[in-house]
Specification:
Layout (H helix, E strand, L loop, with lengths): L2 H4 L31 H5 L15 H14 L20 H7 L2 H4 L11 H18 L3 E3 L5 H18 L6 E5 L5 H8 L3 E5 L9 H7 L4 E7 L11 H10 L3 E6 L11 H4 L3 E4 L1 H4 L14 E3 L11 E4 L5 E4 L16 H37 L15 E4 L10 H10 L6 E2 L8 E4 L7 H20 L1 H5 L12 H6 L11
Parallel strand pairs: 2-3, 2-4, 4-5, 5-6
Antiparallel strand pairs: 1-7, 6-7, 8-9, 10-12, 11-12
The structure holds pyridoxal-5'-phosphate.
């Protein structure tokens, strides 16, 4: 039985109705302060009735939360092939380092002289990211890739405004992630969608056709969301630059390039890094993210404040005195826990390890593609980078769709891949194995997908009704996302 299904046998044990009046899980020490009259102290705020909380023994509570934790799909439980999201393994060494008290307890407003170690880490991480990407400066402030994008486009806007230029368009390929047009629109730009070619790539001619002197920037993801390397990137950057525009690089897929290619060398002027995708910091679950933004020197004056700077005596300090800055995005250090983990990852792998990480990510994606080709339709065939996109076209006659395949994977203990994205592929299944998986792990995943395809032909209802082994079957996904019920309430409320 897979980890994901072990908990289901205990369903009845999960109910809060296990509560029994007077049952307790805590043993408080004797009162060692004056016994004041709480009612008198609190006045109207004093509760007339005790709160209706579950009353349970310690062992019941521990079992409840431990069991709940196994209901979450997690990269520590198995392959998490979410394309474009890069759910790579989070090494435990990162966790140990992030718990060091000097990092874990630093207050965002600690004076610089009290947190020199932390500033040193920020400084070194900034230098590593600049070196890896070919950028000149990096701000560690943004709290997610999307906020890095927002900051990047704000800097592009500030740059053009500073030069007295009024440009109001941003060019974005049709395969882009939704945060790209969102970042452009939030900065007041009109988005011009540029069609990719039949090979899934952006072509210089398509950019030439829409490039004009009111274009502020082109945003491009490389490798793109089809997992394909944009081979015309150099020429495309030239076209945009010669028209006075800048090129924003969506760095979400940097995993594929580590140590092999640098966006800055390809012509990118500004880019974000998703530390949680490329540099192994924990991802998802609503926890803190981090999306540093790197720039070429022409954009440096516009970086968010504060930036780490070296004082004359060699110590590090926060520099806020930057007249052209786009402003502040976050508390001084950004999401520090994530920065520490990313730095630990970079140092523990070193340049050779980072290169190997990209090589393995690419090899794994191509291995999956080679084994799944035939069973699934491959819309843009050929070698891929770190992820591959398939579609459900071969299953059309069975009535089984991408959504059904994704749901059936849950029955086998796998988190589904990204589905129905990128939008340029109907019925897309976007799979990113990452570098962390072994050959055996990849083979197990492939065999499971091939079994599902077999089932689709022989017993399609089994796939269409999946998941069959979870506590809840198919949810109304929109309501589950928009109006999640996150709190238990007694049934009669
Ligand atoms: C290509 C691409 N760009 C940008 C983002 C946004 O990054 P974040 O989730 O860190 O906000 C994502 C997220 O999945 C992405 O896949």
């Amino acid at each position: 039985m897979s980890n994901a299904t072990q908990g289901f046998a205990y369903e009845e044990a999960l109910l809060f109705e296990l509560s029994r009046p007077g049952r307790r899980g805590v043993d408080l020490p004797a009162l060692d302060v004056p016994d004041v009259d709480a009612k008198q102290l609190l006045g109207e705020a004093f509760r007339a009735e005790p709160a209706d909380l579950p009353q349970l023994s310690e062992v019941d509570v521990v079992r409840h939360f431990t069991r709940l934790s196994t209901w979450n799909a997690a990269v520590d439980l198995g392959l998490y092939p979410l394309g474009s999201c890069t759910m790579k393994y989070n090494p435990k060494i990162n966790e140990r380092v992030a718990r060091l008290p000097g990092f874990a307890w630093a207050h965002p407003h600690s004076p610089a002289e009290r947190v020199q170690g932390l500033l040193q880490l920020c400084h070194e991480l900034e230098r590593s990211l600049a070196e890896i990407s070919g950028m000149d400066r990096v701000s560690l402030q943004p709290a997610a890739g999307a906020q890095g994008e927002l900051a990047g486009i704000m800097m592009i806007r500030a740059y053009h405004e500073h030069r007295g230029e009024r440009r109001h368009k941003v060019l974005i390929p049709d395969s882009a992630h939704g945060t790209n047009p969102a970042s452009a629109a939030l900065n007041g730009y009109d988005v011009v969608s540029v069609p990719s070619g039949s090979d899934g790539l952006l072509h210089p001619e398509a950019v030439e056709e829409v490039m004009a002197d009111d274009v502020a920037a082109l945003m491009i993801t490389n490798p793109n969301t089809l997992g394909l390397f944009e081979t015309h990137i150099g020429r495309i950057c030239e076209i945009v630059h010669s028209g006075g525009g800048l090129v924003y690089g969506d760095g979400a897929n940097l995993n594929a390039l580590l140590g092999r290619g640098r966006p800055g060398d390809l012509g990118i002027d500004v880019m974000h890094f998703n530390l949680h995708k490329t540099f192994s910091t924990p991802h998802g679950g609503g926890g803190p993210g981090s999306g540093p933004v790197g720039v070429k020197s022409i954009l440096e004056p516009f970086l968010p404040v504060p930036v780490v700077a070296q004082a004359e005596d060699g110590s590090l300090e926060w520099d806020e005195d930057r007249p052209l800055t786009i402003g502040r995005l976050h508390g001084n250090h950004g999401n520090v826990g994530m920065l520490v983990r990313a730095h630990a990852y970079i140092l523990s792998l070193g340049p050779e390890g980072l290169r190997r990480c990209a090589d393995m990510a690419v090899l794994n994606a191509n291995y999956l593609l080679a084994r799944l080709r035939g069973a699934f339709h491959v819309p843009y065939d050929g070698a891929v980078m770190h992820e591959c996109v398939l579609s459900d076209r071969e299953l059309a006659a069975t009535g089984v769709t991408t959504l059904d395949v994704a749901k059936r994977l849950i029955d086998h203990g796998y988190h589904p891949p990204t589905i129905y994205f990128p939008l340029v592929v109907a019925g897309a299944l976007m799979i990113e194995p990452t570098e962390s998986e072994s050959r055996e792990g990849l083979d197990r995943f492939v065999e499971t997908l091939l079994d599902i395809v077999r089932e689709a032909h022989e017993e399609p209802e089994k796939v269409r009704s999946a998941p069959n082994r979870t506590r809840l079957a198919r949810l109304d996904e929109t309501r589950a996302a928009r109006k999640p019920v996150l709190r238990w309430q007694p049934e009669d409320v």
